[in-house]
Specification:
The protein has about 350 residues and is an alpha/beta fold. The chain is about 30% helix and about 20% strand. Helix 9 (about 325-340) links the parallel strand 11 (about 305-310) and strand 12. The structure holds zinc ion (ZN).
Length: about 350
């Protein structure tokens, strides 16, 4: 999902996403390494909880007193059966070696320009136009050897990736972790406006710069790094974990997620996952703490075009507004059906 909706800089056209320049937490052209670590922690603990007995852990304790009764919060969970692995892994997170590794993994991923844009020809028509994804797959294989030794990998429609980390109890519904491999394109005419080139993956000591450093190679690399680290500490899940990485999310996902979804249904059945975690809305600062807002549900979208024909007249003296009723009915229908709508109403005088 592209959250990159700020105004385009001069020189960029509407098919290109905006260029990011300055170093600021909310700008997605680059990502702070602490975000990488945070997202990693966010993934690694839930993965261990999947097989564990849970117990109340530490509370944040910083939410306003007045909000507590309005919106009671459950206590954070912490692994018990795997407490030792959790401790070791969290210790690893504190190390410079891990920081270097996370930086290298994400930076390397950013350097592969897996851009998708609306005029990209469909995969079957021009496979060569998508060849960056083949390079990206080789990179993942080289960077995460344990993942590729231990998990079953299926490619769907050539570049869609589905990994299965088979759990010891196959009666449990698996969980699904999703991310996308592609990034919004960079208008070549604006490259000189970047502080660091968009596919440099440059690390300035605090930030990793470039397309995909946030959306969504951060998510994809964090998932693989979390599993690679857990595997290196001999962790094996009880519940199966499935990873699904599409490759054209920024242009609606018809060739990636659109093909992966029926594959998952065919392979695992209807209503076969315990839950899913996807890209979501990112990280937000709230109550003095950093919160992750992952996607925990999926919805489609619904385009509605409404052409309204009314009696003639002048727009300064419009007729009775009965067309409004049907417009709102349609919009409500779309909303109810898809949870999201994008209406393109047109008003035509004759
Ligand atoms: Zn995205």
């Amino acid at each position: 999902m592209s959250n990159e909706q700020s105004p385009l800089l001069p020189g960029s056209s509407s098919i290109f996403a905006p260029v990011r320049k300055a170093g600021h937490v909310s700008r997605p052209g680059h990502v702070s390494i602490w975000r990488v670590v945070f997202v990693f922690c966010f993934l690694v603990i839930p993965l261990m909880l999947l097989i564990d007995v849970e117990m109340p852990g530490l509370g944040f304790g910083s939410e306003p007193e007045s909000a507590k009764h309005l919106c009671p919060q459950t206590e954070p969970l912490y692994p018990v059966a795997n407490a030792k692995v959790a401790q070791t892994v969290l210790h690893v997170l504190d190390s410079h070696a891990f920081l270097d590794r996370a930086v290298a993994a994400l930076s390397g991923a950013v350097q592969i320009a897996t851009e998708t844009y609306d005029t990209l020809p469909p995969l079957e028509k021009d496979p060569n136009a998508w060849k960056e994804f083949a390079s990206f797959h080789l990179y993942l294989k080289k960077t995460f050897p344990l993942v590729h030794d231990s998990l079953k990998l299926t490619t769907v429609n050539t570049y869609g990736l589905v990994y299965e980390w088979t759990g010891s109890d196959t009666d449990l519904k698996p969980v699904l972790l999703a991310a996308h491999q592609d990034v919004v394109p960079v208008n070549p005419a604006t490259i000189d406006q970047w502080t660091h080139p968009p596919f440099s993956g440059y690390f300035d000591g605090e930030w990793i710069w470039g397309r995909g450093s946030s959306d969504d190679k951060l998510g994809l690399i964090s998932i693989l790094l979390a599993i690679e680290t857990l595997l290196s500490h001999k962790f094996q899940p009880t519940r199966t974990v499935v990873l699904a990485f599409g490759f054209d999310e920024e242009i609606s996902g018809t060739q990636g997620a659109g093909k992966i979804a029926p594959y998952l249904e065919e392979t695992y059945g209807r209503n076969s996952f315990a839950f899913l975690v996807d890209e979501g809305a990112g990280l937000v600062q709230q109550y003095g703490a950093l919160f992750a807002a992952p996607g925990i549900g999926e919805k489609g979208y619904f385009d509605v075009r409404v052409d309204v024909t009314t009696e003639g007249g002048h727009s300064s003296i419009p007729p009775a507004n009965h067309h409004t009723v049907s417009f709102w009915c349609l919009r409500t229908l779309a909303q109810a059906k898809a949870g999201y709508w994008h209406t393109v109403p047109t008003y035509r005088h004759i």
